Amino acid sequence: MLEVVNTTVFSLENGGGNPCPVVLNADSLTTDKMQKMTKDFAHESAFVLKSTRSDCDIKIRFFVPLHEMEMCIHATIGSITVLVNRGMIKHSPTIVETMLGPIKVEWEVKGSNLDVNVEQFSPEFLNVNPTVEEICKALCIGIDDINNFPIQSVSTSRYKLIIPLKSVGTLNNLKPNFEYLWKLCDEFNTTGFYPFAIEQESKQCVQARQFPKRAGYNEDPATGVAASALGAYLTENKVFYPLKDGWNSYKIIQGIAMGRPSIIKSETFIQENKIIRTRVKGNAIENSSVFVRETSY
Protein backbone atom coordinates (compact mmCIF):
# COMPACT_ATOMS: atom_id res chain seq x y z
CA MET A 1 0.00 0.00 0.00
CA LEU A 2 1.17 3.50 -0.85
CA GLU A 3 0.40 6.51 1.32
CA VAL A 4 -0.86 9.56 -0.57
CA VAL A 5 -0.94 12.80 1.43
CA ASN A 6 -3.11 15.55 -0.02
CA THR A 7 -1.60 18.98 0.58
CA THR A 8 -2.45 22.55 -0.33
CA VAL A 9 0.42 24.95 -1.01
CA PHE A 10 0.68 28.78 -1.15
CA SER A 11 -2.82 29.36 0.26
CA LEU A 12 -3.67 33.03 0.89
CA GLU A 13 -6.98 32.23 2.60
CA ASN A 14 -9.45 29.36 3.04
CA GLY A 15 -10.21 27.78 -0.32
CA GLY A 16 -7.02 29.13 -1.85
CA GLY A 17 -3.69 27.62 -2.80
CA ASN A 18 -2.59 24.87 -5.16
CA PRO A 19 -3.42 21.22 -4.35
CA CYS A 20 -0.60 18.68 -4.46
CA PRO A 21 -0.88 14.96 -3.73
CA VAL A 22 2.40 13.65 -2.27
CA VAL A 23 3.10 9.93 -2.72
CA LEU A 24 5.52 8.59 -0.11
CA ASN A 25 7.99 5.71 -0.55
CA ALA A 26 7.29 5.59 -4.28
CA ASP A 27 10.48 3.69 -5.22
CA SER A 28 8.61 0.66 -6.56
CA LEU A 29 6.49 2.68 -8.99
CA THR A 30 7.31 2.79 -12.68
CA THR A 31 7.16 6.05 -14.61
CA ASP A 32 4.00 4.82 -16.33
CA LYS A 33 2.30 4.15 -12.99
CA MET A 34 3.30 7.58 -11.65
CA GLN A 35 1.80 9.17 -14.75
CA LYS A 36 -1.43 7.17 -14.44
CA MET A 37 -1.77 8.07 -10.76
CA THR A 38 -1.26 11.76 -11.52
CA LYS A 39 -3.88 11.66 -14.25
CA ASP A 40 -6.25 10.08 -11.74
CA PHE A 41 -5.42 12.72 -9.10
CA ALA A 42 -5.92 15.50 -11.73
CA HIS A 43 -3.34 17.71 -10.01
CA GLU A 44 0.40 18.27 -10.16
CA SER A 45 1.77 15.47 -8.02
CA ALA A 46 5.00 14.60 -6.22
CA PHE A 47 6.56 11.16 -5.79
CA VAL A 48 9.14 10.84 -3.02
CA LEU A 49 11.93 8.28 -3.49
CA LYS A 50 15.31 7.40 -2.06
CA SER A 51 18.04 9.48 -3.63
CA THR A 52 20.34 7.94 -6.22
CA ARG A 53 23.03 10.56 -5.48
CA SER A 54 25.40 10.64 -2.49
CA ASP A 55 25.08 14.43 -2.24
CA CYS A 56 21.26 14.43 -1.92
CA ASP A 57 18.95 13.45 0.94
CA ILE A 58 15.84 12.51 -1.05
CA LYS A 59 14.61 12.38 -4.64
CA ILE A 60 11.36 13.88 -5.87
CA ARG A 61 9.73 13.33 -9.26
CA PHE A 62 7.09 15.77 -10.48
CA PHE A 63 4.14 15.08 -12.79
CA VAL A 64 1.19 16.93 -14.27
CA PRO A 65 -1.67 14.87 -15.74
CA LEU A 66 -0.11 14.80 -19.23
CA HIS A 67 3.65 14.56 -18.62
CA GLU A 68 6.59 14.58 -16.19
CA MET A 69 8.25 17.90 -15.24
CA GLU A 70 11.86 18.69 -14.37
CA MET A 71 10.93 20.91 -11.42
CA CYS A 72 7.87 21.93 -9.42
CA ILE A 73 8.31 24.28 -6.48
CA HIS A 74 4.88 23.94 -4.89
CA ALA A 75 5.19 20.14 -5.01
CA THR A 76 8.61 20.44 -3.37
CA ILE A 77 7.14 22.56 -0.56
CA GLY A 78 4.27 20.09 -0.12
CA SER A 79 6.67 17.14 -0.03
CA ILE A 80 9.08 18.72 2.45
CA THR A 81 6.18 19.67 4.72
CA VAL A 82 4.88 16.09 4.75
CA LEU A 83 8.34 14.63 5.40
CA VAL A 84 9.11 17.05 8.24
CA ASN A 85 5.71 16.46 9.85
CA ARG A 86 6.39 12.72 9.85
CA GLY A 87 9.96 13.02 11.11
CA MET A 88 11.29 11.52 7.87
CA ILE A 89 13.74 14.40 7.46
CA LYS A 90 15.25 16.09 10.48
CA HIS A 91 17.81 18.62 9.24
CA SER A 92 17.78 21.82 7.22
CA PRO A 93 18.91 22.42 4.58
CA THR A 94 17.61 19.33 2.82
CA ILE A 95 19.14 18.59 -0.58
CA VAL A 96 16.59 17.28 -3.08
CA GLU A 97 17.53 15.30 -6.17
CA THR A 98 15.53 16.46 -9.21
CA MET A 99 15.79 16.04 -12.97
CA LEU A 100 17.61 19.41 -13.00
CA GLY A 101 20.12 18.32 -10.36
CA PRO A 102 20.39 18.97 -6.61
CA ILE A 103 18.10 21.66 -5.17
CA LYS A 104 18.71 23.16 -1.71
CA VAL A 105 15.62 23.48 0.46
CA GLU A 106 15.76 25.31 3.78
CA TRP A 107 12.94 24.94 6.28
CA GLU A 108 12.10 26.21 9.75
CA VAL A 109 9.30 25.39 12.18
CA LYS A 110 7.60 28.57 13.44
CA GLY A 111 4.86 27.70 15.89
CA SER A 112 2.30 25.66 13.98
CA ASN A 113 3.73 26.71 10.60
CA LEU A 114 6.59 25.32 8.57
CA ASP A 115 8.32 27.93 6.41
CA VAL A 116 10.00 26.42 3.34
CA ASN A 117 12.52 28.12 1.02
CA VAL A 118 13.30 26.45 -2.30
CA GLU A 119 16.43 27.63 -4.10
CA GLN A 120 16.45 27.89 -7.88
CA PHE A 121 19.15 28.76 -10.39
CA SER A 122 20.59 32.00 -11.73
CA PRO A 123 18.14 33.47 -14.24
CA GLU A 124 18.33 33.17 -18.00
CA PHE A 125 16.56 35.64 -20.30
CA LEU A 126 15.64 34.79 -23.89
CA ASN A 127 16.10 37.50 -26.51
CA VAL A 128 13.70 36.00 -29.05
CA ASN A 129 10.10 36.28 -27.87
CA PRO A 130 6.60 36.58 -29.38
CA THR A 131 5.51 39.96 -30.74
CA VAL A 132 3.00 42.17 -28.97
CA GLU A 133 0.50 41.35 -31.71
CA GLU A 134 0.96 37.60 -31.18
CA ILE A 135 0.52 37.98 -27.40
CA CYS A 136 -2.65 40.01 -27.87
CA LYS A 137 -4.06 37.36 -30.20
CA ALA A 138 -3.29 34.61 -27.69
CA LEU A 139 -4.75 36.48 -24.71
CA CYS A 140 -7.63 38.09 -26.69
CA ILE A 141 -6.74 41.62 -25.58
CA GLY A 142 -5.76 44.90 -27.21
CA ILE A 143 -2.29 46.35 -27.64
CA ASP A 144 -3.22 49.16 -25.23
CA ASP A 145 -3.61 46.55 -22.46
CA ILE A 146 0.13 45.74 -22.55
CA ASN A 147 2.41 47.66 -20.19
CA ASN A 148 5.68 49.25 -21.33
CA PHE A 149 8.00 46.64 -19.84
CA PRO A 150 9.34 43.91 -22.17
CA ILE A 151 7.59 40.66 -23.04
CA GLN A 152 10.25 38.09 -22.21
CA SER A 153 10.73 34.41 -21.56
CA VAL A 154 12.64 33.91 -18.29
CA SER A 155 13.90 30.81 -16.51
CA THR A 156 15.30 30.06 -13.08
CA SER A 157 14.52 26.37 -13.75
CA ARG A 158 11.93 26.23 -16.57
CA TYR A 159 11.10 29.00 -19.06
CA LYS A 160 7.92 31.03 -18.53
CA LEU A 161 6.81 33.89 -20.79
CA ILE A 162 6.41 36.99 -18.62
CA ILE A 163 3.82 39.45 -19.96
CA PRO A 164 3.31 42.88 -18.32
CA LEU A 165 -0.29 44.16 -18.30
CA LYS A 166 -1.47 47.62 -17.32
CA SER A 167 -4.26 46.61 -14.94
CA VAL A 168 -5.34 43.88 -12.56
CA GLY A 169 -8.82 44.14 -14.07
CA THR A 170 -7.54 43.17 -17.50
CA LEU A 171 -5.50 40.35 -15.95
CA ASN A 172 -8.45 38.78 -14.16
CA ASN A 173 -10.75 39.06 -17.18
CA LEU A 174 -8.40 37.24 -19.57
CA LYS A 175 -10.02 34.53 -21.73
CA PRO A 176 -7.12 33.14 -23.77
CA ASN A 177 -7.15 31.35 -27.10
CA PHE A 178 -5.42 28.28 -25.67
CA GLU A 179 -4.64 26.47 -28.92
CA TYR A 180 -2.84 29.55 -30.24
CA LEU A 181 -1.19 30.16 -26.84
CA TRP A 182 0.20 26.61 -26.82
CA LYS A 183 1.38 27.05 -30.42
CA LEU A 184 3.40 30.10 -29.34
CA CYS A 185 4.81 28.15 -26.38
CA ASP A 186 6.04 25.49 -28.81
CA GLU A 187 7.46 28.03 -31.22
CA PHE A 188 9.31 30.06 -28.57
CA ASN A 189 10.39 27.18 -26.29
CA THR A 190 8.53 28.26 -23.17
CA THR A 191 6.37 26.18 -20.82
CA GLY A 192 3.58 28.67 -20.21
CA PHE A 193 2.33 32.28 -20.23
CA TYR A 194 2.62 34.27 -16.99
CA PRO A 195 0.89 37.65 -17.41
CA PHE A 196 1.08 40.01 -14.43
CA ALA A 197 -0.04 43.46 -13.29
CA ILE A 198 1.19 45.63 -10.43
CA GLU A 199 -1.04 45.31 -7.36
CA GLN A 200 0.54 47.64 -4.80
CA GLU A 201 3.63 49.43 -6.04
CA SER A 202 4.77 50.52 -2.57
CA LYS A 203 4.68 46.94 -1.28
CA GLN A 204 6.39 45.29 -4.27
CA CYS A 205 3.27 43.22 -4.89
CA VAL A 206 1.87 41.96 -8.20
CA GLN A 207 -0.98 39.76 -9.34
CA ALA A 208 -0.35 37.07 -11.93
CA ARG A 209 -2.01 34.18 -13.77
CA GLN A 210 -0.38 31.06 -15.19
CA PHE A 211 -1.50 29.34 -18.38
CA PRO A 212 0.70 26.24 -18.77
CA LYS A 213 1.46 24.47 -22.02
CA ARG A 214 -0.68 21.32 -22.39
CA ALA A 215 -0.56 20.26 -18.74
CA GLY A 216 -4.00 18.67 -18.60
CA TYR A 217 -5.64 21.85 -17.28
CA ASN A 218 -5.71 25.40 -18.64
CA GLU A 219 -4.74 27.41 -15.58
CA ASP A 220 -2.77 26.96 -12.37
CA PRO A 221 -3.73 28.68 -9.08
CA ALA A 222 -0.15 29.01 -7.75
CA THR A 223 3.07 28.39 -9.67
CA GLY A 224 6.39 28.61 -7.86
CA VAL A 225 8.55 28.11 -10.98
CA ALA A 226 6.75 30.96 -12.77
CA ALA A 227 6.85 33.19 -9.68
CA SER A 228 10.60 32.65 -9.42
CA ALA A 229 11.03 33.65 -13.08
CA LEU A 230 8.83 36.70 -12.48
CA GLY A 231 10.93 37.74 -9.48
CA ALA A 232 14.03 37.67 -11.68
CA TYR A 233 12.18 39.66 -14.37
CA LEU A 234 11.02 42.31 -11.87
CA THR A 235 14.60 42.70 -10.66
CA GLU A 236 16.25 42.70 -14.09
CA ASN A 237 13.82 45.30 -15.46
CA LYS A 238 13.76 47.40 -12.27
CA VAL A 239 9.97 47.29 -12.13
CA PHE A 240 10.24 48.27 -8.46
CA TYR A 241 12.97 50.70 -7.57
CA PRO A 242 15.39 51.11 -5.89
CA LEU A 243 16.97 47.68 -5.63
CA LYS A 244 19.46 46.73 -2.93
CA ASP A 245 22.43 44.41 -2.58
CA GLY A 246 21.37 41.15 -0.97
CA TRP A 247 17.86 39.70 -1.07
CA ASN A 248 15.04 41.57 -2.82
CA SER A 249 11.56 40.21 -2.09
CA TYR A 250 8.31 40.30 -4.09
CA LYS A 251 4.80 39.19 -3.16
CA ILE A 252 2.99 37.47 -6.01
CA ILE A 253 -0.76 36.96 -5.74
CA GLN A 254 -2.19 34.27 -8.02
CA GLY A 255 -5.41 32.28 -8.39
CA ILE A 256 -7.85 35.17 -7.86
CA ALA A 257 -9.67 34.61 -11.17
CA MET A 258 -9.99 30.90 -10.30
CA GLY A 259 -11.42 31.56 -6.85
CA ARG A 260 -8.29 30.01 -5.28
CA PRO A 261 -6.38 32.99 -3.81
CA SER A 262 -2.70 32.18 -3.40
CA ILE A 263 0.43 34.01 -2.27
CA ILE A 264 4.02 33.28 -3.26
CA LYS A 265 7.15 35.09 -2.11
CA SER A 266 9.81 35.30 -4.84
CA GLU A 267 13.29 36.53 -3.96
CA THR A 268 16.44 37.46 -5.85
CA PHE A 269 19.93 38.01 -4.44
CA ILE A 270 21.88 40.87 -6.02
CA GLN A 271 25.64 41.20 -5.86
CA GLU A 272 27.51 43.85 -7.87
CA ASN A 273 24.32 44.66 -9.82
CA LYS A 274 23.85 41.05 -10.89
CA ILE A 275 21.30 38.42 -9.84
CA ILE A 276 23.32 35.50 -8.50
CA ARG A 277 20.68 33.55 -6.53
CA THR A 278 16.92 33.02 -6.66
CA ARG A 279 14.49 31.32 -4.31
CA VAL A 280 10.80 30.94 -3.51
CA LYS A 281 9.25 30.93 -0.04
CA GLY A 282 5.93 29.37 0.95
CA ASN A 283 3.89 27.11 3.21
CA ALA A 284 1.79 23.99 2.83
CA ILE A 285 -0.93 22.33 4.87
CA GLU A 286 -1.91 18.66 5.00
CA ASN A 287 -5.57 17.99 4.28
CA SER A 288 -5.93 14.21 4.30
CA SER A 289 -4.07 10.96 3.89
CA VAL A 290 -5.20 7.85 2.03
CA PHE A 291 -3.65 4.49 1.18
CA VAL A 292 -3.86 3.08 -2.35
CA ARG A 293 -2.85 -0.26 -3.82
CA GLU A 294 -0.04 -0.14 -6.33
CA THR A 295 -1.77 -2.89 -8.26
CA SER A 296 -4.68 -0.49 -8.93
CA TYR A 297 -2.41 1.18 -11.49
Automatic annotation (TrEMBL):
What InterPro entries does UniProt report for this protein, alphabetically? Phenazine_PhzF-like
Record's Gene Ontology CC terms?
cytoplasm
The answer to whether UniProt assigns keyword Isomerase to this entry is: yes
A Pfam family per the record: PhzC-PhzF
Any single GO molecular-function term of the entry would be: isomerase activity
* KW Isomerase (keyword) present: yes
Catalytic residues (positions): E44
Q: Spell out the PANTHER family in the cross-references.
A: BIOSYNTHESIS PROTEIN, PUTATIVE-RELATED, PHENAZINE BIOSYNTHESIS PROTEIN
Regarding protein family, the annotation reads: Belongs to the PhzF family.
What name does the UniProt record give this protein?
Phenazine biosynthesis protein, PhzF family
Q: What organism, scientifically named, is this protein from?
A: Aneurinibacillus aneurinilyticus ATCC 12856
Instruction: Please spell out the taxonomic lineage of the organism that makes this protein.
Output: Bacteria, Bacillati, Bacillota, Bacilli, Bacillales
